[in-house]
Amino acid sequence: MSRVFLHVDMDAFYASVEQRDHPELRGRPVVVGSPPNQRGVVSAASYEARTFGIHSAMPSVEAGKRCPHAVFLPVDMPRYKEASETILRILERFTPLIEPLSIDEAFLDVTGAIRLFGEGPEIGRQIKEAIQAETQLTASVGVASNKFLAKLASDLEKPDGLTVVPRTPDKIRAFLAPLPAERIWGVGKVTRLHLSKAGIVTIGDIQRVRLDTLASLVGRHSAHHLKQLAMGEDAREIEMNVEEQSISREFTFMEDCADREELEAILCDLVDDVGRRLRRVEKYASTAHIKVRWTGFETITRQMKLDPPCCDDFQLRKAAMELFGKVELTKPVRLIGFGVTQLHRKVEQQLLLFHDGVPPERAEKLSRTVDQIRSTFGPDSIHSGRGRRL
Amino acid sequence: MKLKVDKTAMMEGLTKVLSIINPRTTLPVLSNVLLEAKDNKLWLSATDLEVSVQTTVDAEIDTEGDTTLPAKRISSIFRELPSQEVEIDVDEHNSAAIQCGFSFFKVVGISGEDFPPLPRFEGSRNYTLEQGVFKEMLQKTSYASSADETRPILNGVLLSFKGEKLVVVATDGRRLALVEQEVEFPADAEGDLVLPSKTVSELLKTLHDEGQIKIHASENQVAFEFGDMLIVSKLIEGTYPNFRQVIPSQCEERIAVEREGLLNAVKRVSLMANDQTSTVKLGFGKNRLQISTETPDVGEARESLPIKYEGKEIAVSFNPEFMMAPLRFLESDEIYVELTDDLSPGVIKSNVPFLYVLMPMRVG
Description:
The complex is a heterodimer of chains A (390) and B (364). Helices cover 41% and strands 22% of the residues of chain A. Chain A is an alpha+beta fold and 390 residues long. In chain A, β5 (98-102) and β6 (105-109) form a beta hairpin. Chain B is α+β, with helices and mostly antiparallel strands and 364 residues long. In chain B, α1 packs antiparallel against α2 and α5 (259-269) runs antiparallel to α6 (320-329). Chain B starts with a strand and ends with a strand.
């Protein structure tokens, strides 16, 4: 039996919540994120703001230039979380097979719900109605036979859209053919460039090109992946309870910073914060990375393996410092970040005889003790000599 | 070069030098064994440029000379020869005629001049030991050295001559084995040598229980002379980690355990441990040691041993392989396990100057 997947994507979510809660903002360009006179970026822009070319991840300064009369608001996460929860409860009335992708979008497998609520498009309509009625927010919904197509579809008729992808292979291919290649998940700037050099611009072009030719452009693995998606094939299932795959934090300077000591102090604080969150979810990381954005927005990342996987501030700091130590400060730094990926629950670990500094098992105990002190007496009650609380 | 040699004696000699040859060498002459007929003996040498081994075989020398012959082929030939007396006749083109009974072989060799000469060096530090003692010291420690090539120094075995003692240490960073022995040597010969694992296994294979061994060491090379053997080896460069620092000065509990009983129990219980995450738990309670393991989706195993113990309850997990290794090489009936808690190093001792430090596995 053919499957029915929905992708529900809230429209300009943060900005819409703000406009809902502040009626005077409705119909006006609203930007949620850093103020225009400060460093930092746009987290969300209302559709009114988008007409000025403002989009998320754009520096706020730039957004302020494009639309000086826009209303800038700080991110109010608790309120967005609350709205997100309400929406999740609505989705759960239709199916238990829900995979939230982020605070404002989710996949649903409604194959089994059709008997109760009607065909896929009908369920999509009912979900949109319920969200509108109960949260006064609009969602765009994509209805298709797999996750890839559903996500692609929800984006086609934003805002307040309901896009239904045809179900037969021929029609799916025809539906995809005119769309630009970068609509395919995984096709970023670099891949697009490689493809366009070979005259591959639309998904239809990818459908027609030989697999070998494609492989010579993007590599065999990616080529296979691209070809499948271009044909509209995607066998991924709904993943429930997806565990956190990465934890990271970054800091944007008010003024670009070229002082290594200052940068290291900030980095230490970011590391401690990531460490605390890692320990809170009872995970151990086996990869650490740093991110450095220079004046002018050029960004580099550096990563290394953590072996054995760890979660204590000492190991994480050592990794961060080692990575940062290799970065030459040729320009002032605008943003610095630290993160961990490849997280796992650890079952057992061989302790070691020799180590530089604090033994890992003691380091973890110590880090957990610091977490407890902070949660009891406040975040500033204790910190190491190196960092400077952000 | 022309000589007569006994088949069995020649096989023994070849076996001693053969294992040093690197089967993947790119220099053809290094696949060969050097044969030198001189001083009424046949000298056999092999090298991989790190370690060189030389031994002698009694032979009846007709004409002195030298050549090199493919080691593997020549040893296969000798193994299969039909009778004891073998005649080897090498012409000026390094073509060796081997005659034994009615069998005849012609083996093409390479000139002895192409063979790298055995390193000669002035040993500034010289030691003399009993072969049997030295062999036992290596046996009791070398298994603990590391196979991971990221820290080359830990691939070796440390010989530390200090304060009228020889201390032999091997560690892979997770467990450490140490033996010490009083040895006489001049005070100015104090110092450390780190032997490559290949050299150690060559020693273990060729050392006898009787007789003496002479060790000559320079800054970066070492030579071992014993019986009819000479082994010359490069030393692993670098500083060996400060092993004294990781030996607990005192543990809270010391428990006597019957060695074979413990070894067999751990062996049985570990049958239910997983290959990747291998752990056995040792639970010390009043007069009882329980060894157990539990592997999700595989199963579990438990076994109890009676012990004399009145101390605090301790449950600590170890890699079973690391636990069993020293028990296999000790001879005493009883060993001592010293522990403090589940995260501190455990120590295994015996009634001889042997010490094994083992880091626990942290579980959960």
